[in-house]
From TrEMBL:
This is Branched-chain amino acid transport system ATP-binding protein. CDD domains: ABC_Mj1267_LivG_branched (cd03219). The keyword ATP-binding applies. The lineage of its organism: Bacteria, Pseudomonadati, Pseudomonadota, Alphaproteobacteria, Rhodobacterales. The keyword Transferase does not apply. It comes from the Bacteria. PROSITE patterns: ABC_TRANSPORTER_2.
Length: 248
C-alpha cells in the first residue's frame, strides 16, 4: 500500500486519553492520536520521552494507567501480548533477545507459535516465506547468536513478521549499522510496507526514518508536541529545540 492510499479507511489504531504512570512518575500524559491504515508513522522524541512506553502499551507489555486503545475498531486495553500478536500487532524490541542457540528458522517458529499458528505445515510455510522476505534464507540454519548485526536486525524484524501482523512496531531498529547496511534495512522495511503492513517506527537514525515515514509524531516528557509530514515536523521550531537543541 502506498502513502497516498493511507487514510482511505477507518484508522487501524486509535489512542484516546492514553496515560501511563510508574508509581508517582507520570511518563505518558493524555495522548490522543490515530494511525491510518497503510502509513508509516515515525515517532521522535528525546531520550526518556516515553516512546518505548507507548509501544509497551500498544503491544500489551504494560497496561495503561488511563485512556483507551482501539485496534481495528476493537478495544485492546485488557488484552495480553500474545492475544495482540494473534490479532495482528507485531513488534521489535530495542534490545533484541533472540534464542541465541536456536537457529534463525527455529526462532521464527517460536514467534509464529506464540501468536497461535496451530497447523504445523502452515507454520513452516509461513516461516520459510518470512525468511525469504527478510533476506535470511541463506542463514536459516545459523544459530541466532552467530549472526552479524545486520542479520540480527533482520531476524528481529522476521520474528515480528512471522505471525503475519497488520501493524508493525519498530523500536530503534536502525542503530549501529554502517550506511550501506542501513540502506539494506530501509529497503527491507519499504518492502514490508509495500506488502500492506502499517508501521509505527521509533528511530533516532533520522535519515533512515525520513526515507520511509509518511507522517511523524513527536513526544517530549510524555506529551505529544508535534504531528505532521516529516518535513513539517523537522522544520517545527519546538521540535528543533527539544530534539536537536537548536534555539530559534
Ligand atoms: N518499568 C518502568 N518503571 C519505572 N520507570 C520506567 C519504566 N519504564 C520506563 N520508565 C521511565 O519512563 C520514562 C520513559 O521511558 P521510555 O523508555 O519510554 O523512553 P524513550 O522515549 O523510549 O527513551 P529512549 O529514546 O531512550 O529509548 C523514563 O524516565 C524511564 O526511566
Amino acid at each position: 500500500m502506498t502513502a497516498t492510499q493511507a487514510g482511505t479507511a477507518a484508522p487501524i489504531l486509535v489512542a484516546e486519553g492514553l496515560g501511563k504512570s510508574f508509581g508517582a512518575i507520570q511518563v505518558l500524559h493524555d495522548l490522543d492520536f490515530r494511525v491510518e491504515r497503510g502509513e508509516v508513522l515515525g515517532v521522535l522524541g528525546p531520550n526518556g520521552a516515553g516512546k518505548t512506553t507507548l509501544f509497551n502499551l500498544i503491544s500489551g507489555d504494560h497496561a495503561p494507567s488511563a485512556g483507551t486503545l482501539h485496534f481495528d475498531g476493537r478495544a485492546l486495553t485488557a488484552d495480553p501480548p500474545y492475544r495482540r500478536a494473534q490479532q495482528g500487532i507485531g513488534r521489535t524490541y530495542q534490545i533484541p533477545m533472540p534464542f541465541s542457540k536456536m537457529t534463525t528458522f527455529e526462532n521464527l517458529l517460536v514467534s509464529a507459535s506464540f501468536a497461535g499458528r496451530k497447523r504445523e505445515s502452515e507454520t513452516y510455510d509461513r516461516c520459510a516465506e518470512v525468511l525469504r522476505e527478510c533476506d535470511l534464507w541463506a542463514h536459516a540454519n545459523t544459530p541466532a547468536g552467530q549472526l552479524t548485526l545486520l542479520n540480527r536486525k533482520r531476524l528481529e524484524l522476521a520474528r515480528a513478521m512471522a505471525p503475519g501482523p497488520r501493524l508493525l512496531l519498530l523500536d530503534e531498529i536502525a542503530g549501529g549499522l554502517t550506511s550501506e547496511e542501513g540502506k539494506q534495512l530501509v529497503d527491507l522495511i519499504r518492502r514490508l510496507h509495500a506488502r500492506g503492513v502499517t508501521i509505527i517506527w521509533i528511530e533516532h537514525v533520522l535519515h533512515a526514518l525520513m526515507a520511509v515515514a509518511t507522517r511523524m509524531i513527536v513526544l517530549n516528557f510524555g506529551e505529544l508536541i508535534a504531528e505532521g509530514t516529516p518535513h513539517a515536523v523537522m522544520d517545527d521550531p519546538e521540535v528543533q529545540r527539544v530534539y536537536m537543541g537548536i534555539e530559534a
